[in-house]
Amino acid sequence: MGEVVAGARGRGTEDVRRHNLAALLGLVHAGGATTRAEVTRQLELNRSTIGGLVGTLVEAGLVVERLPAADATSGRVGRPSLEVRAREGGAEVLAGYVDVHELQVLRVGLGGTVAGRRTIALASPPDPETAADLFADTAADLLAVGPPDVVVGVGLAVPGTVRTEDGSVAYAPNLGWDDAPFGDRAAKSLTERTGRRVRVDVANDADLGLLAEHRRGAAVGLTDVVYLCGTYGLGGGVLTGGHPLTGKRGFAGEVGHMGVDPDGRPCRCGSRGCWESETLASAWAQPFDLDENAADIVDLVLQRLGSGGVVSRRTRDKLSRAFARGLANMVHLFDPQAIVLGDGLWRDLWPALADDVLPWVDRFVMPAMRAGVEVRGSALGRDSTVLGAAELAFAPLLDDPLGVLAGQASSQSPARSS
Amino acid sequence: MGEVVAGARGRGTEDVRRHNLAALLGLVHAGGATTRAEVTRQLELNRSTIGGLVGTLVEAGLVVERLPAADATSGRVGRPSLEVRAREGGAEVLAGYVDVHELQVLRVGLGGTVAGRRTIALASPPDPETAADLFADTAADLLAVGPPDVVVGVGLAVPGTVRTEDGSVAYAPNLGWDDAPFGDRAAKSLTERTGRRVRVDVANDADLGLLAEHRRGAAVGLTDVVYLCGTYGLGGGVLTGGHPLTGKRGFAGEVGHMGVDPDGRPCRCGSRGCWESETLASAWAQPFDLDENAADIVDLVLQRLGSGGVVSRRTRDKLSRAFARGLANMVHLFDPQAIVLGDGLWRDLWPALADDVLPWVDRFVMPAMRAGVEVRGSALGRDSTVLGAAELAFAPLLDDPLGVLAGQASSQSPARSS
């Protein structure tokens, strides 16, 4: 299954070299910096091979080497190991997150450094063309200040189901998008504004939040995780056995539209009684009303909870039970090590509701499965999703550093300085 | 990730040889028989290497070579390719399936041939010790008739959550088992009765049904599948991106205990309103009553459905809607290519209910996700689960043929004839 069998299929030194360069760059990217000694240990290669690989990445403009800062070496004996770190202004990506009320745009360098940031408030959910053009405008502005040598990719997050095959948005109920070629439009628009031709990848917001938390946040080192993202809707990203849950077309993990109540409220997806509508809409007055002035759904829920009185107590009970039921389902379905709550859920909703929710979770989940499952908060806060979009954009470079650079060299007009 | 990097880690010809032997044996096992030409094509190895590998497996007593039957070669030009097939009476496994009302025991040969079969009716759910001993007694009887050279493993299926780590049954509500070291007892009991020391693996019944359907049944070639097993309870096995969904401890995929109705009936798992209890118990009279004479839950449901009258119509509607809601959730959560219904669900329940269920599924699932998801029936019928247990038992041999045989040679008293 995917193994390289030496000799059997004519795979040779080129594959090995690509694999090793990718592994080395992956270490630098994950940590921001590393040392030759650490790389030698982790990759189990000899020092001269490591030297050659580092040299190649230096020549490609991706990393730099330097002596570590004095305080890191004081008291040690012998020559300190050279530090290998991502070269600032070398390879960068652009990342965007379109949600109902705002657009986040980031410039992120190799190693995860944020090189530029813009957040645009939106008066109403944008259509796909407007969102793509606004992203391109904003990205062009960000790139104008100290542009990087090369933009190796663009990652875009949307609250909806995305077709893995072509990056089109199949359905984003909270944006009102249906079968939208959002990625294509963003690529075209970005080229018009910057002259750069860059690969654009699109993915579901919660899947990307999970990706970022897994690389740099609350889920580092875990193999089985459910990440929940509550902004305007309720999205889920699932890691199972170390693999992201995608399903056949990339649509899997729509946990917000898991039906939990046959007599529940109508949901914006067209069904009723979904976890999303029962958890979040239960705090809303009937009739169901899309309040465009609310910052996000968690704020709305909290406004209702905070209003006091009889309705509030009933609302709190119903909300707690519905939220707990969905959490219990996550445990029964995915047997995770942890459920990671995204920023708004963790920062605002959980402190207000945890004492009500947790006893229900204990009651709903089979005891044998409940033990050892932790509910924890995002470590990246509001940035989880957009940082995940950046990781998505870096993925091809991290798989084949020289191949991606070779492909980019011919497609971006700004000359790369060496 | 898991790739063998030639030269970099000292992996050498031994690894390659093991890998190739395993691949060859896998082809023979999956098809029952293959040809040298087919193996050469599929493994992309040269003919002399294939010859050496086949020779090794022949010598190990696992396969035989022969000229294909005349009718298969008539009209062809040139020397026919030698057929390679599993050697009858060579390596076998024992498989067992403990459910509420019966115990199935199979002897299965390499290539999937059933070499012996026994089904024992149970008056009531057995305790773990009784079940293990009854399995061992029955297996010993089956082995007494023309015993194989070697029993390479035992696979056991139970309707419950199984700890991957040690094969103990964490919780099987319908059997009333709680933290039961079932596999250990079965291994000990089998050794007492047969003198053979054999590795015993235990797994969830629906997970094993999926494994069998994926290897030889309705899910061959698919990467994303939900398999539903409805006997006394409602179990699920999920394949996602080509990997079985297991979760951290092996408990994942408890789809029957996904909560779908906050005001639903009590479930045997201790919660209420689970998909299992809403779908299956909705056909039962209240108060909830465990009828030990019913063959399985699907029979019970059908008895109720067949009883006619006002109650039956209401029951049918409620059952259809609840079943559809769970199916819709499977689509939203796993984005599968197909939902495969196990024997009883497909043979009995689906013909009676499909016309009621499918319109609800269409209504509950987001249109973008509904298209292209097929509901189909098991191809292995009542044998899915126990054949999956056999596949579980074969897995170590298929991973490292010579290694497993070497380990077995010292632990089984019957001498192997060559």
From TrEMBL, chains A, B:
Tagged with keyword Transferase: yes
In the UniProt record, the signal sequence range is none
Q: State one Pfam family annotation.
A: ROK
Record's keyword annotation contains Zinc = no
User: Which UniProt keywords are listed?
Assistant: Kinase, Transferase
Q: Which domain of life is it from?
A: Bacteria
Q: Which InterPro entries match?
A: ATPase_NBD, ROK, WH-like_DNA-bd_sf, WH_DNA-bd_sf
Q: Which GO terms describe its molecular function?
A: kinase activity
Family according to the record: Belongs to the ROK (NagC/XylR) family.
* Name used for this protein in its record: Putative NBD/HSP70 family sugar kinase
Q: Species name for this entry?
A: Kineococcus rhizosphaerae
Q: What is the lineage of its organism?
A: Bacteria, Bacillati, Actinomycetota, Actinomycetes, Kineosporiales
